[in-house]
Amino acid sequence: MNWNWYARRDLRKIHRWGAILIALPFLIILLSGLFLQVKKEFNWIQPPTQEGTKAGASLSFDEILSTARGIPELETSTWEDIDRLDIRPDDGIIKIRGTNGWEAQIDGHSADVLSIAKRRSDVIESLHDGSWFHDEAKLWLFLPTAIVVTILWITGIYLFCIPYFAKWQNRKNLAHRKRKHRKKREHTEDEEIAV
Length: 195
What we know:
Elements: H1 3-21, H2 23-37, H3 61-69, E1 82-88, E2 93-98, E3 102-107, E4 113-118, H4 121-129, H5 137-194
Antiparallel strand pairs: 1-2, 2-3, 3-4
Helix pairs in contact: 1-5, 2-4
């Protein structure tokens, strides 16, 4: 047995056990990634962006907070209850995201409420990067999973290419042996003619 056989055997073991070790975290990454790919296609994941009366935004921060306080779903009383503001001047709206996962979209000039909906894409994103489980899960579980997936990709490509490389090598060796055999036969015939 040669070194190549041992390498293939060891790579198959690494491939098999690596896949088993990362099966659950990788499934979470895969499924949440699929949802994130289509988040704008399904209103259930991320509410569609509304259109304001005109482009730009002229509301003050006090007016935005006052409007947010009037929306019961946001459960807002102070700025600490607001996770972020997303100002979309081209659409003429301001998105207010509460810390409770709800999002309100208001007109950037009149403060009229255009949409109130639960925003699930942030939760799916935190599942995708592992921070939903624990802040340390990103670094100590999901990062190693990404590294192992990279190793699985490399070993998988190697294991996939080996049969093709072996066929190519065998054809090359066979052609070389045929040339060598033909030269030997020609040389033998030349010697018989000379005698």
